[in-house]
Amino acid sequence: MDNLMQLLKNNIRQYGMIIALILIMILFGALSGGLLFEPINITNLILQNSYILVLAIGMVLVIITGHIDLSVGSVAALVGACAAIMMVDMNLHPVVAVILSLLLGALIGAWQGFWIAYVRIPAFIVTLAGMLLFRGLTMIVLEGQSISPLPEGFQKISAGFIPDFGNAGTNLVAILAGIIVTVLYIINEVKARKNQQKYKFETSSTPLFITKMVLIAIVVNVFFVALASYAGIPNILVLLAVLIIGYSFVMNKTVMGRHIYAVGGNEKAAGLSGVKTKKVTFWVFVNMGVLAAISGLIFTARLNAAIPRAGTNFELDAIAAAFIGGASASGGIGTVFGAIIGGLVMGVLNNGMSLIGLGIDWQQGIKGLVLLLAVAFDIYNKNKRSA
């Protein structure tokens, strides 16, 4: 028990949000009569929140460096509009349109990164201007109208599923994926534990370690069984998994990731240590532009249309996800996994409140309160550690 309490104490911010997510799911599962846990609803949760989760990954990197990006919703709308024009009006192949859209997102990120990193204009001002500029450009290129329908191949980004094999009545690919993910997770955890023990780092007790692995393995397989019971693994889930694993690796295992944390922790000290702080900040915003473009493509594909008001409030949801997931408002702290948990908290709140019939007024108020409490909790922990 002491070992468990020490583990929770050392990881209170991360585990606190996971526990909160579980409790929220249990609460709305009970209030909705189990509708929250229906396979179709679990799939819809993934599809409905995918574009926010993509933005949250980029936003947490921006926040770690000590900045903010208010323009991502407008960027997503502009890129989605341009992609639709390329495919519908210019008859470009969806693959070509997607590549050009990602380049456009990178160019927009470079534009904003230049003003922030090299001209030293505060990110709040630059991205606020970007939010207005790119929203205006979206309305100009669409001429106030929607563009639809989009090519079926493009729609599969958000609406497609991994093909299954056989006719077993349940999706075997999803079942197999759950087993593979479980095995890979166990191998990775055992390997990490051996490395920690090799270098004399403190580790949890063996019973606690096994219990944690068993619980996570159960959750993973129940999740994939639920997907298998409906239509299988959504294409967008594969993309999210690649982004989460890739960005987690970059932030935890590479020099670039260490430099991003260093810039957010203390930019002057990082500069004196040889970190090219301006270059790091510039590329973080280029990356944010690309991820905003991906988010815009996902949303446009899901809607099967490009509309002038697309992306409204996306930036607020992404920022909330990052902060709820443990990112610090002062920079230098945050994880990709935490941002995903924060995004899921917001997504489950939205979905759960809709299932039980709460109005949009109550939904907005509750989401605002959750964000405030999450940041207050972060500041409380920080003050407690420094005391």
TrEMBL record:
<keyword id="KW-0997">Cell inner membrane</keyword>
<keyword id="KW-0813">Transport</keyword>
<keyword id="KW-1133">Transmembrane helix</keyword>
<feature type="transmembrane region" description="Helical">
    <location>
        <begin position="233"/>
        <end position="250"/>
    </location>
</feature>
<feature type="transmembrane region" description="Helical">
    <location>
        <begin position="280"/>
        <end position="299"/>
    </location>
</feature>
<dbReference type="Pfam" id="PF02653">
    <property type="entry name" value="BPD_transp_2"/>
</dbReference>
<feature type="transmembrane region" description="Helical">
    <location>
        <begin position="319"/>
        <end position="349"/>
    </location>
</feature>
<keyword id="KW-0762">Sugar transport</keyword>
<feature type="transmembrane region" description="Helical">
    <location>
        <begin position="94"/>
        <end position="114"/>
    </location>
</feature>
<keyword id="KW-0812">Transmembrane</keyword>
<feature type="transmembrane region" description="Helical">
    <location>
        <begin position="168"/>
        <end position="187"/>
    </location>
</feature>
<feature type="transmembrane region" description="Helical">
    <location>
        <begin position="208"/>
        <end position="227"/>
    </location>
</feature>
<dbReference type="InterPro" id="IPR001851">
    <property type="entry name" value="ABC_transp_permease"/>
</dbReference>
<feature type="transmembrane region" description="Helical">
    <location>
        <begin position="42"/>
        <end position="63"/>
    </location>
</feature>
<feature type="transmembrane region" description="Helical">
    <location>
        <begin position="12"/>
        <end position="36"/>
    </location>
</feature>
<keyword id="KW-0472">Membrane</keyword>
<comment type="function">
    <text>Part of the binding-protein-dependent transport system for D-xylose. Probably responsible for the translocation of the substrate across the membrane.</text>
</comment>
<keyword id="KW-1003">Cell membrane</keyword>
<feature type="transmembrane region" description="Helical">
    <location>
        <begin position="121"/>
        <end position="142"/>
    </location>
</feature>
<protein>
    <recommendedName>
        <fullName>Xylose transport system permease protein XylH</fullName>
    </recommendedName>
</protein>
